[in-house]
Design goal:
By secondary structure, the chain is of the alpha+beta class. Helix content is 18%, strand content 28%. The chain binds zinc ion (ZN).
Length: 283
Amino acid sequence: MANIRISSRYAGGNIRLLDNMGNEIQLEQELRDTAQWWFYWSFRADSSLAETIEFVFHNGEVIGPWGPAVSRDGISWRWLGSVAVIAPNRFRYTFAADETCYFCFSIPYQMHHFESFYATIDNHPLVKREVLTLSEQLRPIPKLLLGNPQASEHLYLTARHHACESTSSYVLEGLLEALLEPSSSLLFNDYCIHVIPMVDIDGVENGDQGKARAPHDHNRDYIESPIYRASDAIIREITALGAIKAGIDFHCPYKWGGRNDVPFIVKKGPPVKQEILKSLISG
Ligand SMILES: [Zn+2]
């Protein structure tokens, strides 16, 4: 009887258990319909004993320099820290008896995180909430309208075209908080801001990579005949608006290291633009 139970049956869960050897657990991320190697994973571990367990991943380097993200309740997360990292595919954790822990590739951002944030702006006079459309799995895809829908200018903000790119949602939260500060109020004389925070809501909640889905992912769906309801609805909305002043689509293009550790604007200029155009792995 194993002392550790592994599961991924919660919002954002993603893991394949390869072997449970008591004090060493063999795992890998589920790529699902992603047609190339990718790195997102998230699992829950219930330990009956107080002991140190090593978690070993079998498909590439999926543990960053800050270690995995860790949570006691699946809601509040922090980095476990570099001391937990044995190798980029291996970390350790010392459990207390009967302890439950959630571990994730990065700090996650699920719909329950969005709802907690939304509760803080729900009563703001400039905020209106609508449903963009229903997803393929019939989840309502939230849409926020900031300011006057009749304004002369429109901005369009989107996130999670790639489901696993969670930290971009925290950047979007920060931007919305700043936009709703009284000091920004003059902006809304002329501008209405449309926000779609969870484009691939099914992928986010199901714990998909979402990147490079076959036959193509949500970010590559801005084509004549879109295959996803969300991108189809966004195209229709922007077409109906006639023109938008600007749009920002929030991503986390890759894992750790270099420019990936700080916010940046993709393809803004050299050398990033050239590197991305060359490798064709943008966004
Ligand atoms: Zn992306």
